[in-house]
Amino acid sequence: MREPEAASSAMWELTKMRLREFYREKGIIFWVFVFPLLMAIGLGIAFRTRPAERPRIAVVAEAGGALANALLESPRLSAELKDATTARRELAHAKVDLIVELTAAQPSYIFDPALDKAPVAKMVVDSVLQQAAGRRDPLVTRDVTETHQGSRYIDFLIPGLIGMNLMGTSMWGVGYNLVLARKRRLLRRFAVTPMNRANFLLSYFFSRVLFLVLEISVLVLFGRLLFGSIVQGGLLTLIVVGFLGAASFAGISLLIGARIENTESANGWMNLVQLPMWVLSGTFFSYERFPEWLHLPIRFLPLTALNDALRAVFNDGASLVGCASQLLVLGLWGATGFLVALRTFRWQ
């Protein structure tokens, strides 16, 4: 057999071996396909699209007063009469956003400025009280409401779950399995064969890529059926971005598994790599919440680049050219990891 054909045959046989390992481990199917769906259901229900919550107000006043009635009857507020002690206790536990005291000649607003809803509650309450006292606004305005694709939390979440799932399956399915094979002394047997190291390492990656389309399709179809999420860009573009993301994390995981000898150390290294990206890379909330000086380093993390590219395709209809900077980051991480792993890999 000619050398290219022999290499292709060896690669295919090694990849088939990895696939057999996958479907023999039934628990892997749960973590790859079922667990992300359960997370999407839970988070999608918790942060489902619903009308904006009205400010919660505790009114400390005598029942029957004109100003107190204006607050209690306003459709813009969720207001209840409370005594002063109960109102302050509820404010301390963030059960109300604002306390309005009407026991003196001048109304008082009591609130915690650290609470996000407190300033909005104060403005709404003040507007209701001023109108009840006779104020008339000289400028008449109108409200126009619009809902855009991609503005819901679930539209933000689905691409993030795809990115997190690709990272997890690539890291644990490639690097950790490599360490497990070394611990079981399987690699010592492979070392005496004429197997090419590059083919051996790439077989771990290709075995995961074969599940890539299925992983993405399951989450995309789930989001469409349950939450009405629609992929604005091309499905092929989404798959190509997912492929490059999986390749990037496979390269990193091969680097981790190239020399580590026990699963305890592998667990530590895997968590050390993944945990910061779970927090920083915008899977569940935007990384723009962090200080601005952190934004540039965060964008160079592979999961951030993958999430940004997936969201650009999913919600904005971006092409591969539009995701070029993110794909470059993924390519650099993956290529560097694989090349270094190839040089440092040892069989035992």
Oligomeric form of this entry?
Answer: single chain
Structural class: mainly alpha
Radius of gyration: 28 Å
What is the average of the pLDDT values? 80
- Which band does the percent of strand residues land in? under 5%
**Number of discrete domains:** 2
Q: Could you describe the largest sheet, including whether it forms a barrel? A: 4 strands, mixed
SSE string: HHEHEHEEHHHHHHHHHH
Number of separate strands: 4
Flag low-confidence runs. Answer: none
SSE map:
Blueprint: H1 3-24, H2 26-46, E1 56-60, H3 66-73, E2 78-81, H4 84-92, E3 98-101, E4 108-110, H5 118-132, H6 153-183, H7 186-191, H8 197-209, H9 212-227, H10 235-257, H11 263-280, H12 295-299, H13 302-316, H14 324-344
Parallel strand pairs: 1-2, 1-3
Antiparallel strand pairs: 3-4
Helix pairs in contact: 1-8, 2-6, 2-9, 3-5, 6-9, 6-10, 6-11, 6-13, 8-10, 10-13, 10-14, 13-14
Describe this structure as you would to a colleague.
This protein has a 4-stranded mixed beta sheet with strand order 2-1-3-4, with helices on both faces. It has helices at 3-24, 26-46, 66-73, 84-92, 118-132, 153-183, 186-191, 197-209, 212-227, 235-257, 263-280, 295-299, 302-316, 324-344, and strands spanning 56-60, 78-81, 98-101, 108-110. Strand 1, helix 3 (66-73) and strand 2 form a beta-alpha-beta unit. Helix 3 (66-73) packs across helix 5 (118-132). The protein folds into 2 domains: 3-48 and 149-344, no CATH class; 56-132, Periplasmic binding protein-like II (D-Maltodextrin-Binding Protein, domain 2, 3-Layer(aba) Sandwich). It has 14 helices and 4 strands. It is mostly helical and 348 residues long.
